[in-house]
Design brief:
mainly alpha
Length: 118
């Protein structure tokens, strides 16, 4: 009987052992990381009783954690950020004051990231 999978059990086990997410497993097996591929790979993993508790996906989250990016990354346009979020970061770092740009009136803390109109 012909194997209906494009990868061997050994390749699957190796991909799982060296990955931190199902997405990474699919990529290592040269499979499309979309839609039904996740359900299919989960079913195959379950049928082979392969341990997957280490597949947390946290590696991706840590790599893109916005709170760890420096303000220079945003100011140099290396990463996109909306104006309200940028203003909050600049206020938190003390790079700008919480005041109206037009009249220089000090803005309440709750309103500091919003544009005030008077």
């Amino acid at each position: 009987m012909k194997n209906r999978y494009t990868y061997t059990e050994e390749e699957l086990r190796t991909a799982i052992a060296t990955s931190v997410s199902l997405h990474e497993v699919l990529k290592k097996l040269n499979l499309c990381a979309e839609g039904g591929a996740y359900a299919s790979i989960r079913k195959r993993i379950t049928s082979l009783n392969i341990e997957t508790s280490h597949l947390t996906g946290t590696h991706y989250i840590k790599q893109t954690d916005k709170s760890e990016r420096s303000i220079e990354d945003y100011l140099s346009n290396k990463f996109r950020i909306d104006s309200c979020s940028l203003k909050k970061k600049l206020l938190k770092l003390g790079m700008i004051k919480a005041q109206c740009d037009d009249c220089k009136r000090v803005v309440r803390k709750a309103d500091s990231a919003r544009t005030t109109s008077h």
